[in-house]
Amino acid sequence: MAIIGSGAAQAAPQDCVVERDLLGAAATCQPDGGSNYVLHVDCFGLYAGAFFPQYNIGSYQVLSYPFTPTGQRVATGCTGVGPGVAAVATNAYVEIYQG
């Protein structure tokens, strides 16, 4: 798990738990009084390009943007970027935006 900070985004490792599998990831973040959490999943494989039905092969990112910290599990995967997608998750992390 990697947690990054940039501008208004910040996080501490104890705030969230990220679980990654072959096709995606899930995160559970603790309530903290008003922050928004974004789960980033880095994927690699076949995905629908900008001009469907054109497909591309390579890396891309999927976001579960935004979700509110309620202690609920939020998940996203590499399989939702067009029909016939074949991709694997290579990394997953959470970004916390203070609002």
Alpha carbon gap, first and last residue: 23 Å
Low-confidence stretches: 1-13
**Helicity, as a percent range:** under 10%
Per DSSP, the total helix count is 0
Order of helices and strands: EEEEEEE
The overall average pLDDT, rounded, is: 76
Strand order of the largest sheet: 1-7-4-5
Give me the Rg, rounded. 14 Å
Shape: elongated
Strands, total number: 7
Instruction: Bin the strand percentage.
Output: over 45%
Give the biggest beta sheet.
4 strands, mixed
Structural class: mainly beta
Provide structural commentary.
The chain is mainly beta. It has a domain at 2-42 and 60-78 and 91-97. The protein has no helices and seven strands. The chain has strands at residues 2-3, 16-20, 24-29, 36-48, 55-67, 73-77, 86-97. It has a four-stranded mixed beta sheet, with no helix packed on it. The radius of gyration is 14 Å and the shape is elongated. Mean pLDDT is 76; it is low at 1-13.
